Amino acid sequence: MTYSIIGSGKVGTALARLFARNHIDVAIANRRGASSLTPLVADLEGNIRAVPLPEALAADIVILAVPFPAFQNVAHTKPDWQGQIIIDVMNRREKVSGPMSSELVAAEFSGAKVVKAFNQLPAALLGSDPVQNGGRRVVFVSSNDEEASTKVAQLAAQLGFAPIELGRLDEGGRLLQFHGPLVLHNLIEHEFD
Given the DSSP bridges, would you call strands 135-143 and 131-132 parallel, antiparallel or unpaired? Predict the structure, then answer.
């Protein structure tokens, strides 16, 4: 399984730190080019590679960590996303009626399996150690594709989180479509004997 992160802002950088901490190979790309990521890659060392955008977009699982208005630009770089999983970690800042953000993403990424995950955590928490106070920080996962949801939940667990699958985007996934303060950002799952 190959992974890539598109975007190197606060959320993209936080995700790259998680991959590095857990020794999981990941490519990272942004619109400014691979050379702009040299300081980040040097800081994280090891499993993080800065690559040109087309190479990053060929990964099995592509993590979309760009500002919401920019997702269409990424989607239009390829005519077909068949078989790929797109993890939507974006949050819309404005309150909008109509389709959920992940439904808009799914419509633009033709053939992809879209999964909403990692978006309920502010970047500072997302990039910190998810093991907290004897438990693991929760990450919610939602997708209309059960297999894709399971794969992303497994990735979340590899990164140290306690994933909770919420079902389809049009059902449990509505919980992940935030408008306003993020009230679910610090839930911890504890394991009891």
Answer: antiparallel
